[in-house]
Amino acid sequence: MTTTAPAIELKGISKAFGPVQANKDISIRVMPGTVHGIIGENGAGKSTLMSILYGFYKADAGEIFIHGQKTEIPDSQAAIAAGIGMVFQHFKLVQNFSVLENVVLGAEDGAMLRPSLAKAREQLKTLAEEYELHVDPDAIIEDIGVGMQQRVEILKALYRQADILILDEPTGVLTPAEADQLFRILGRLKDEGKTIILITHKLREIMDITDTVSVMRRGEMTSTVKTSDTSPADLAERMVGRKVLLRVDKQPAQPKETILDVKGLNVTDEAGVHRLKDVSFNIKAGEILGIAGVSGNGQSELLEVLGGYTKANGEILMNGAPIDLTGATSDGQSRRARGIAHVPEDRHHEGLILEFSAWENTAFGYHHDPKYQRSNILMDNAAILQDAQEKMDRFDVRPPNPQLAAKNFSGGNQQKIVVAREIERDPDLLLVGQPTRGVDIGAIEFIHQQIVALRDKGKAILLVSVELDEIMGLSDRIAVMFDGQIMGERLPAETDEKELGLLMAGVTDTDKPHTIEEIEQNLAHAGAGATKEV
Amino acid sequence: MDFFTIVQLGDASIRMAIPLLLACLAGLFSERAGIFDIGLEGKMLAAAFLSAAVSFSTGSVWVGLFAGIGISIVLSIIHGLASITFRGNQLISGVAINFFAAGLTVVIAQGWFKQGGRTPSLSGAARFDGLDFPGALTRVRDKMQASPGMQFYSEFVSGHSILVYIGLLTVPLTWWVLYRTRFGLRLRAVGEAPEAVDTAGISVVRLRYAAVIICGILCGIAGAYLSTAVQAGFTKDMTANRGFIALAALIFAKWRPWYALGACLLFGLFFAIDNRFQNIQLQVIWIMVLLVGASIAMTVYALRREKIDVLVLGGLSAVLTAVAIMTWVGSTGEDIGAIAALFETVKVPSQLIQSLPYLFVVIVLAGFVGKAIPPRAGGEPYIKER
Amino acid sequence: MDKMPKWADVVLVPVVSLLLAAIISVIVFVAVGQNPWEALKLMAYGAVGTSDFLGYTLFYATNFIFTGLAVAVAFHASLFNIGGEGQVLLGGLGAAIVCLFVPWPHWTLALIGGGLAAAVFGALWVVIPAYLQARRGSHIVITTIMFNFMASGLLVYMLSDALRPEGQMQTATAIFPDRTHLPSLNDVAGLFGSDLFGRSPVNVSIFIALAACVGVWLLIWHTRLGYQIRAFGQSESAAKYAGISAVNITMIALLISGGLAGMMAVNNTMGINTPQLVDNAAGGAGFIGIAVALMGRNHPVGIIIAALLFGALYQGGAELSAATSIPVQIVVVIQALVIMFTGALDQMVRSPIEKMFMRRSRAAAAGE
């Protein structure tokens, strides 16, 4: 046949959440047997669009055609029936169920469980051979690594006979090597005639694997092009609507005396998992140390220990004097008193109290500061309010209304409130976790500039990010974490993404060639210890 | 204590355990699906009232049973509305249902029967009588003289109402539903990861409503058992906190059906002992050993931990030790020396005996008897996330 | 932006919730064969119809202010203290011991001493649940319920054994000495030649309750401790980040809560006409505190209003049951309905109102 119907066709999809128009008149055609990329910034409306396709939301307007048939998708059941499978960014797995139970859930054959499980066991064997998707069907989800969990998600879709597979930011939790492996699997699925939609904000992935790519910006689909006809710089410009600096503009660092010296740090969590293993490093004044790594390899615990809310063994010297890691003064208040400020990884659950107003959040963590007190007992709310107003003006927080609850600001403006609070403390050491996650590009540039400016004032900065671009662009020195250990340190000028990628997978002899099997073994060895999601 | 006493105690334990067990399994279904329910008490109470009232009015206990189950389901659905549909606070909803039932049963009972908030006494077909198995002895005097095997058969195995046997059968049934059926798989999943259930194309809302309705059915049977089998009619607040004890038993049982049976039998034994031995006397030395021993154990535990532990547990130890010493000093007298006083017997206050189950609940909840991990999505309303 | 104006959140939502509770109450009245209009008239008369009744209403309202504040302080830390009932009983024990065994020279000093003892005893009764919640994660709701049962056991033991004077039939303490008896408001009004509150027991502790409201308002919104309590209540993980100790805040918030509940005992032991501690002294006030806090949106002003309303309901309900065959438990039913509608079903009331305001603001925006 010459006129094949598109596997998916969307016509004029619109969706609003209150006053926010998340999707505006979006139309798209994806041909069967192709890999189609959808790229855009956070908040551009990619996930909303896919949620509509998977029946999570009902579109306000527009039509969906699957293989030429007009299809209503009121719920996930309908999406599954239409042959759509979705792998979410945050996996939708039952942690204490086995792989088999997770695959069967919702796709059982009858009211009794046993026949369904037996049938699924057979099916999994076939699928594993067909697509190189080997997983132990009896393994419990919480005991297997993130890469394996993702395979379970793909298997779930295939078991339901999906022929259209949507993956939402699938590589966010994977090492580069695992990502390559995933792309091999996707290639294989494509060869079998499956249609794949890949949602991502990473330009490299689009270039590597997709056939066609659509760019989304502020709820609109601005263009759809053949991948071979475009370039990363071109795509970036389409995403943002203007030329962007993919590299941060900064002078070479001039490191001075050592501010932070970490020696032999160990953390074991409540479940007895060894989260940090003998971590040692130092940061000098006027230097940004970047910690690269796939999320869940101990970076969060490192920040928590330094920020004072997880106890640890080992030694940390701050300005030459030891820090209490286990006793009564191992808390966030004492850390702040020692000149450590902290922009946490998760602003919604750590950095801000969403229900509090912006001005109340300005004092958060610094509520003991004498300048916020009226007397020994009473706080000076007026002083906090004024301070908040000034900070919001300086950091161009919009809207500049300190009475507004934090939850009512956009991601970028929320992050600015946090960054303003921490940086304006003029700390000796600034801890920064995922500073630009869920932040629009304009705010990213601003926040990066502020971090570099603090460095240039001669302060030490510890940057933790899962975005390799951000690490490469901002850091003066890069340490790579894997399975709770520091695998090595590199200078940005003397390394590349490939080498860092191997370190992130726990391979230290980066000069030699490595097969994916070796890396997989390495990751499997790291096991459940590396599965904690951030 | 002779063998017959032990058999009688076991028999009483089962009687006391059945309402706990049914309520506990009711809670199990609800909490396994992610809905906390401290309204078990209220549902049981409402069911106890309505089943007694309807049994009396119709003369048929079976009609009464179904009425009890019906009202319990209605309250379950209200709890479902609050916690599933309107995503309210599940604890507050449960508290409201408890008060609602506690108040309304008395108000309606008074309006209906005008006997001071109780139902008239039930008899005959309006009550569940014990089932006597073939060959079982029924008269106490006969039983006392029978062989141990016969005593066991007649007193322990035979003679319970049909609801007791239904209650016991509910345990394997619950296990089977939970682990051997599609519904059970989904139910367990929705309490752990509702998003997984939702994306698999199954309605979280429908599943959770199914769970709370099952919870309602079991609470209904438990309530009906109290007013139509154990007692012959409804009296004000007759559930006597069993709903709360059942919740503690559920935690103790780590949300598993067979463990629930064990936990409820244990609590049943507590109540049986409490009922049978109103007047417990102990030698002072045993009180000293118990209280001072507990104090030492707590202090030792606290000293290896933080300041707050030392403060709280140390204070508690001091109070217990003071009580022990006061008991000792109180037993000495003009003709009784300090040493002799140790072997005096004193009566344990009946209020203390009655408080023992509650104390045990607190100890269970303190988690020193094994840490339990509740269903991960428990207590939280499910909100779809992108 | 916020979805609706503040006045709608503070006034409209609670009023609609109350209306819904009222409608169901009407159905209950009809179901038990009582004319709801007659019942309402009887209750209103019973609540404020005579100076005695008005005084009783205020007397109960004093109780409910204390227990409402107690529940609210814990709610701000996202903790559900359902143990007010037991804490009130223990507070009574504290007040009784202090009044019976300390020779107070004047009622003002007795008020301070008794108030402190009541608060300390109330707070002590929540120490173990608080500790278990903070350190062991044992659910505060179930442990405080258990402590309610144990409190009533302890009280019955004390009142029938240790604290009961020989020869007295009633399970109660001896009557407190005269100099610990708090002046009733009628005595105060009498100074001005008025007989406003009749023979009702409403007494000066109502001023303590109002002072406690101011204190709680300052604590929650104007002190570091209150800031930390609210922060912890909103987000435990963020509190951890900020260096706010979960253990300390849990303990302190619950101790304050228990102390406030305990203080209620001043009103119902030292304040009543024959000052003594009687069996079942709490009379459900600890539980009504839940409804009061929910309806008052955990704010002292709201709590005062809600406490007055429940005071009227409690007193009116008592008169209603005296005049008709409806038992006093009707108050418990209404209390349950208020908890249900203002607490658990809040979203059911709120979201249609929110939608209404959103539609109006959108229409207004389109009209411009």
Question: Key terms for this structure?
Answer:
heterotrimer; A: 534 residues; alpha/beta; Rossmann fold; 2 domains; six-stranded mixed beta sheet; 18 helices; 20 strands; 34% helix; globular; B: 386 residues; mainly alpha; ABC transporter involved in vitamin B12 uptake, BtuC; two-stranded antiparallel sheet; 2 strands
Care to give the gist of this entry?
Chain B is an all-alpha fold.
Kindly describe this structure.
The complex is a heterotrimer of chains A (534), B (386) and C (368). Chain A starts with 7 loop residues before the first strand and ends in an 8-residue tail after the last helix. In chain A, the strands form four sheets. A six-stranded mixed β-sheet of chain A has the order 6-7-8-3-9-10, with helices on both faces. In chain A, strands 16-17-18-13-19-20 form a six-stranded mixed β-sheet, sandwiched between helices. A four-stranded antiparallel β-sheet of chain A has the order 2-1-4-5, covered by helices on one side. Helix content of chain A is 34%, strand content 23%. Chain A has 534 residues and is α/β, with parallel strands linked by helices. Chain B has 386 residues and is an all-alpha fold. Chain B folds into two domains: 3-276, ABC transporter involved in vitamin B12 uptake, BtuC, CATH 1.10.3470; 281-347. Chain B has 16 helices and two strands. A two-stranded antiparallel sheet of chain B has the order 1-2. Chain B is globular, with a radius of gyration of 24 Å. By secondary structure, chain C is mainly α. Chain C is built from 16 helices and no strands. At the B-C interface, helix 3, helix 4, helix 11, helix 14 and helix 16 of B face helix 6, helix 7, helix 12, helix 13 and helix 15 of C.
Separation, N- and C-terminal Cα atoms of chain C = 19 Å
Q: Could you state the order of secondary-structure elements of chain C as H and E?
A: HHHHHHHHHHHHHHHH
Name the largest protein-protein interface in this structure: B-C, 53 and 57 residues
Number of domains of chain B: 2
Can you tell me the CATH class of the largest domain in chain C?
Mainly Alpha
Strand content of chain C: under 5%
Structural topology:
The complex is a heterotrimer of chains A (about 525), B (about 375) and C (about 375).
Chain A: E1 8-17, E2 20-30, E3 35-40, H1 46-53, E4 61-66, E5 69-70, H2 76-81, E6 84-87, H3 99-104, H4 113-131, H5 146-159, E7 164-168, H6 176-191, E8 195-200, H7 203-209, E9 212-217, E10 220-226, H8 232-240, E11 258-268, E12 274-284, E13 287-292, H9 299-307, E14 313-318, E15 321-322, H10 332-337, E16 340-343, H11 347-351, H12 358-362, H13 381-394, H14 411-423, E17 429-433, H15 441-456, E18 460-464, H16 468-474, E19 477-482, E20 485-490, H17 497-504, H18 516-526
Parallel strand pairs in A: 3-8, 3-9, 6-7, 7-8, 13-18, 13-19, 16-17, 17-18
Antiparallel strand pairs in A: 1-2, 1-4, 4-5, 9-10, 11-12, 11-14, 14-15, 19-20
Helix pairs in contact in A: 14-15
Chain B: H1 3-32, H2 40-58, H3 61-85, H4 90-113, H5 140-145, H6 148-157, H7 162-180, H8 182-192, H9 194-199, H10 204-230, H11 242-252, H12 257-276, E1 281-283, H13 284-303, H14 307-331, H15 338-342, E2 345-347, H16 350-365
Antiparallel strand pairs in B: 1-2
Chain C: H1 6-31, H2 36-48, H3 51-76, H4 84-101, H5 107-124, H6 127-136, H7 140-162, H8 185-190, H9 205-222, H10 224-234, H11 236-242, H12 246-270, H13 285-295, H14 300-323, H15 330-344, H16 346-367
Helix pairs in contact in C: 1-15, 1-16, 2-3, 2-14, 3-9, 3-12, 3-13, 3-14, 4-5, 4-7, 4-12, 4-13, 5-12, 6-7, 6-12, 9-10, 9-12, 9-14, 10-11, 10-12, 13-14, 13-15, 15-16
